[in-house]
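Appendix B, example 12.
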Amino acid sequence: MAIISYDNKNFLMDGKPYTILSGAMHYFRIPREYWLDRLTKLKECGFNTLETYTCWNLHERVEGQFNFTGMLDIAAYIRMAGELGLNVIVRPGPYICSEWEFGGLPAWLLKYEKMPIRCNDPVYLSKVRRYYEALFDQIGPLLSTKGGPIQMVQIENEYGSYGNDHDYMQAVADIYRDLGVDCCLFTSDGACDWMLNGGTLPQYLSVANFGSNPRGNFKVLKQYRPDEPCMCGEYWCGWFDHWYEEHHVREVDDMVNPFKEMLADGASCNYYMFHGGTNFGWMNGANHTDVYQPTITSYDYNAILSEAGDRTPAYYAVRNAIRDFTGVETVLTASESAKAGYGEVKFEKSVGVLDVASLLGKAVKVPAPVYQEELDQNFGFTLYSTVVKGPISGTRLTFDVLHDRAAVYFDGKLMGIFERDRRNPEIVLNLQVGDAIKVDILVENMGRVNYGPRMRDRKGAVGIRFGQQYHFGWEVTPLTMPQFDEPNNLTDLPYADGAEKTFEGSLFLKGTMTVDTPADTFIRLDGFHHGCVWVNGFHLGRYYNDAGPQKTMYCPGILLKAGANEVIVLEMDGAENGTVLSVDTPDLG
């Protein structure tokens, strides 16, 4: 295997000038059965390199227990790329941003309250080292220096956007070297003084991230690295969406012309994203500046391949640009996936979430409400329950912290929905002497902050008050539901016939989608408000019709079988009808 290096102007492949033409695709956002299709389309677009992050929070969901199987088999993904003749850039973080839950960091880190993250803290670095030991046990043999396709490995990720601890950066690099990672190491940051000053190390290659104005951005990079080749480590060809926003789009020429400029100037480039894929399950992240902004389920990103892996007009424009640069005409062999709409899915069974909470988790008695992480509840929902006794008059329910959304029930009746930085209803309690009321608060983690100074984003509800008085004596139940490969514990809940009922409050609805020939499809939930969808036990992700922009959920055809397919919806706010649609066209707003 050839090995990449660089001089003061060019990347070199076995000593000869080489242009890195890379596209980002994350194995953990793509069903394993579709990896070959997506990688083939990358190759046939003219790219010579695959770039991927790694996801610590899925590989080590429980501290000390690692998973590199199925959709998380990164070594298989890299080998597949190598077999197609692609080089590989790996970006192991440990922090990856990527609009991914907690920026890829595992939520159990937040149980260590006194441990800072992303700095030269020995306890934190011990966790990083343990993860890297497991990761490079898998992919270390695939380094180019050992005959594999991995040519470059990134040190941390856009660290200058977060901090300036160069001892920490060096410690990450030292762990790599201790583990035999002897290929080209590099850092990537935005092209501005404070980011480049904070996030780079002088002995390692530095690349810049941007979405426009390559000459201006490379001019800034050259002020710091005059004797290195120019590379855009993330060329943002589109952008991600938050709930409550419009879907981001970008004109093809506006995206392709800066890429052509980079090629003409001798720079290398990594398209972010070539194919975005999907934030399946609860794995979307969030931003938080003045307002908390969770990312939607689709990671379409306006990328060169759509969320479902289809070539877009940008694909052909980029392919033409690469052809004009290299003089090589590629042959297109990979087909687009079949799409189908299977029509109406009717939910004839339903059950209230409060009615089955004890079947989904074990209640823990606590004097005061605690964060989800203290109960090892990394994702999803947690139920806070108590009894309030009178007399109490005109007192409003409030929270010191609510992260991120809560449905509040009094004696089983939905009283209102709170939402972090968005909704703060006035729910008032009035009880006479001798009265008592059951209070249930169903709290949802809508995604931990993945970027910036507010990343220690613990979830749940703490400091629950009626008026100014804190209420003590709670039962807290972490609700377990399947994500990807976990057992499907939703199928056998005690559903009741729901064909004629009004679908009120937070409830599970169960129906059947009849499929003739399995194909990719999209679930449209008109008449529903907010919740999650599972198909045959696989968690497609979150929908939020009231907040937009996304209106359909991508359901890969490989999840389906001919005949009856189970569809389960968790609707948090109550549905207006008992049906959803399977359609053959996405609607991202």
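The mean pLDDT is 97. DSSP finds ten helices and 32 strands in the chain.
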